[in-house]
Amino acid sequence: LLEAGREESLVQSVPLTAAAFYGRIGNNWEYPSEPSDTVCKGVPGGVCLGFKGRGLGGTSSHNFMLYTRSHHRDFDGWASDGNYGWSYREVLPYFLKAESSYVKVSSNTFETPMISSVLEVAREFGYRAINPFDKVQLGFYRASTTTLKGQRNSAARAYLHPVRNRRNLHISMNSIVTKILIDPDTKTAYGVQFTKNGVSHTILTKKEIILSAGVIASPQLLMLSGIGPRHHLESLSIPVVKSLSVGYNLHDHYGYTQLKFNLRNPGTFEPHKTTAQQFDEYISNGTGPFSSP
Length: 293
Description:
- With about 290 residues, this protein is α+β, with helices and mostly antiparallel strands.
- It has 8 helices and 12 strands.
- It has helices spanning about 20, 70-80, 90-100, 115-125, 155-160, 215-225, 230-235, 275-285, and strands at about 30, 50-55, 65, 105, 145, 145-150, 150, 175-180, 190-195, 200-205, 225-230, 240-245.
- The longest helix has 12 residues, at about 90-100.
- Belongs to the GMC oxidoreductase family.
């Protein structure tokens, strides 16, 4: 396992620390977008920053642990385009299996007085409380999180930590993959080039190579390895192994992050009001404000 980042720290497992780690240099890749006058209008130059986790567990080790499923129409749209097996009805069993197996999905029991106020205001505006896992996703609901017993349950903690001492598993941290070696005749991947501490290394494989570098770095590595649009690869003097539309048609969800409110009584949102008693509650029971992202 080649990982460009570092080990997930113990502090990162405390949900309340999510805001402190999100976007911190060293824990994530900051992918800047091309300047635009139609998006990111509140950001200088109209440049969006795409945050992606860097370290074992990827983004699941530094995000806000919020969990939801995509809208059923997204999956049904893929199926209607000819991607058989991807309808919402067909993928639902896999969601249910994932939500009850390794990466646990929980409903946080900690509530601040603000929650009831928000739900009351929502009802006044005509919105209703919903189950986010139903087909209707327009409304308000108490968020589900990928936490277990009050701790962040990242992909690394759920899948990797229980088996990391296996003799046939080797983990190399701070290792940045630069190229996948592919036989141009058989189109078969047979190795990986990476750098660690400024030194270049090559690993040859007998079986398969799993590329799991995210929606930005995965197509980037494919193109660096010769799989991508011919005109683009040739403009960079990269030998073409296979001309494919790699890196095209990336879609991201809409986001609006600047909706802020001034609270007359912030309560537990004020750091100096976080008490030793609350910390003791978290250590003893995994509950309280420290268990909430």
